[in-house]
Structure formats: structure tokens, C-alpha cells
Amino acid sequence: MTRQLTRALAAGALAAAATVPALASDLTGKSVDVQLIFPTTADLRADRTVTVGAGPEITCAGGGAGPDVCTGFIVGSAFDLGADSITLDITSGHSSWNVYDFNGYAFTGLSSGGAWSGYALSTNFDGLDASRITFTPDSVAVNMQGIQADAGDYFTITLSPSAVPEPADAALLLAGLGALAGIARRKRA
Question: How far apart, in whole angstroms, are the C-alpha atoms of residue 120 and residue 137?
Fold first, then answer.
């Protein structure tokens, strides 16, 4: 019985140690799809896959020109994805999003960066609030329907990681399992 307990404790410690790094949530270096969607959620107008790194992943010059998700931006803007955040900055001009059922952006593939349990919204866009955000652990959609934009306007969505054990907690768990295995070994001898 003691040998079985020792083996079970060792297997549990190895399993716990193997899962701790996999639980960390970080989009850096991961691929995320940025999608322009209107006039309904069923109408994908443009899609660009970006790799999350330093600085903005997508910069739109404005003037209504530009590839994929920049199409239709008559103001300068930038999409910047971070380790746990999504930001849209209006860098120049004045504009608005048309009043369609849905007129905005979706960010998908977020689960490749970890397990996300929620988000926090920070913005100075008048009228943009949590009721316009659709969240899943793999995606965030932002409905900008009818929103007015001026230079300096922004939104930042900060993703909340799922419960992850702190490194000290994981170390304590492993030390405890090791101590139990040692006690079982001594009882066997």
C-alpha cells in the first residue's frame, strides 16, 4: 500500500508541475484574427491575422483607403494587441461608425494565448460600454454602432486570465506532495 501511495503522490506531483506553465495567459507571439464586421454579425467584411508583439499590429492611415480592416477608416487609427489587452486608438481626424445592427470588430483566436475568464473595458468613446462587448474565452467583439470618434479617442479591453496558481502556491503544493512521499517512504522502510 505504501509503494502505491508513493507512486500516486509522485504522479500527482509530476502532473501538477506539468500543468502550471500551461496555465499562464499571454498573447505575446501568438496569432490573433482581427475582423471588420458589418452590417450584421453574419457579415465578415475583412480579416487580418496578426502576431502579437511590441507596438501596434495594424496602423490605418485613414482616408477610407487601406487593406482589409483599415477599409472605411476615414481617420488615422491603430490596433495594438498586448500580452493581455486589445486597444484601438484614433490617431487623427473625426468620424463615426454607421448605425447598422453591428458595426465593429472581432478579435478571435485569443485562447491560443491562454485561458481567459473575463475582461475590463477602459474607454473614452462616448456611448461605448460593456453592453456593446461580446466576450468568450476565445474572442471579443466590439460593436461601435453609431459611435463618434475624434483624435485621442480609444478603447482598451484588458483580458482576465482564468485562475492560475501563484508560483509560490505551486511550489508549496509540490513541496507538500514531496514531504508526503518522503513520509510514506520512511513508513515503508
Answer: 13
- Grid cell at residue 97: 461608425
Single pTM value for the model: 0.75
Q: Verify cis geometry, omega within 30 degrees of 0, for the bond prior to 56.
A: no
**More reliable by pLDDT, 3 or 134:** 134
DSSP letter string over 61-127?
--TT-SSGGGTT--SEEEEEE-SSEEEEEEEESEEE---SS--EEEEE-GGGG--EEEEEEEE-STT
SS3 177: helix
Q: How far apart, in Å, are the Cα atoms of 143 and each of 29, 84, 147, 186?
A: 26, 20, 9, 63
- Output the pLDDT for position 151: 94
- And the C-alpha cell for 65? 483607403
Of 42, 99, 107, 115, the C-alpha closest to 79 is 107
Contact 178, 7 (CB under 8 A): no
How confident is the model over 86-106, as a mean pLDDT? Answer: 93
Q: Tens digits of per-residue pLDDT, 15-38?
A: 554 444 444 689 999 999 999 999
Rg (the chain; Cα; Å): 23
